[in-house]
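Retro notes, item 3 of 5
We never archived the inputs for the magnesium ion complex last cycle. Fixing that now. Sequence and ligand:
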Amino acid sequence: MQEWFWLALTGVALLASLVGFVLWYSRRGLLPPPPPDKAIPQGPTTLDRFAAALQRTRDALGGSLRAVFGREQADEEAYEGLEEALLRADVGTRATTALLTELRGRVPVTAPASALRTELRALVRERLLRHPTALATVEKGPLVILVVGVNGSGKTTTIGKLAARYRKEGRTVMLGAGDTFRAGAIEQLKVWGERTESPVVAHQEGADPAAVLHDTLQSAIAKGVDVVICDTAGRLQAQKALMDELAKVRRVVGKVLPGAPHETLLVLDGTMGQNAFSQARVFKEVAGVTGVALTKLDGTAKGGVVIGISEEFGLAVKLVGVGEKVDDLRTFDPEAFAAALFPDVD
Ligand SMILES: Nc1nc2c(ncn2[C@@H]2O[C@H](COP(=O)(O)OP(=O)(O)OP(=O)(O)O)[C@@H](O)[C@H]2O)c(=O)[nH]1
Ligand SMILES: [Mg+2]
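Structure as it came back at the time:
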């Protein structure tokens, strides 16, 4: 009898330590408490990672561009091939036409087609540089960034990465859980809050997002927080309801802090290609978008959308997502983008 008792006790103790270990292990990834500098791993250099994320787009363009640029002259066939390649990379018809028209003016027909490559690269760079890629800054905090976009585009992940970036720069960050629509959205933001040591202001699921963000901003002002990043819902029953909600959020935020939001980032999924254009059109009108964060650049051959978005909507792509990890966010670099898409060496 006594033997059984000790055996059972040992069994229970073993089980308890196993459960304890599993719990400890699974929470490890969620709670990295060291100072921000150590918590956020240093990835490869910005340019390397950025260029690597463009690999698929470059591959998709590569074959057809090689054939075009290898031609003896910048003739009609070269332009046709170029048009086809740009459209395939989701540059969009309007931007493609604009680029080709300008190229025709710059490159004489008698020039070797390789001249098209150099000029195209310069042209893309110049045109992208028209729209500044730096995020807004304010003299006196808090800087308020509103993040909008359809569901699944990568809003919450981008917020987490952005919070990590500001924390690394030594700023204090507060997150506002303005997506009260989707089940689990608040929890997801709280995980990023813990990871980046940024307090999260949240109400219940189903609460009024404008009220949540009102409270977030008031709390941030009272506490002297440097940066406030506001999450929003990506889907409501109707597009009109979503747009009305965003308009209300903007009004309320602007009332608490005149001038806010200072930056309204539209998060677009890079793998959506042309669909990103229609989203940009809708959100730009209603939500007062000031810049684009293009996510999942690492998983798409449609990186050409960057050019289309800039040309058609006058919107700068300011940030790009190059993976799912906390340090997989890059400032968009027009120079590196043009160089990566149209390299001198194939
Ligand atoms: N590969 C890759 N995946 C990403 C990137 N950004 C976000 N994701 C993934 O995309 C998925 C959706 O991201 P979320 O941040 O939840 O998207 P959301 O816009 O907040 O979605 P809702 O809350 O449903 O509106 C997640 O699995 C992310 O890990 C990126 O740059 N690269
Ligand atoms: Mg979300």
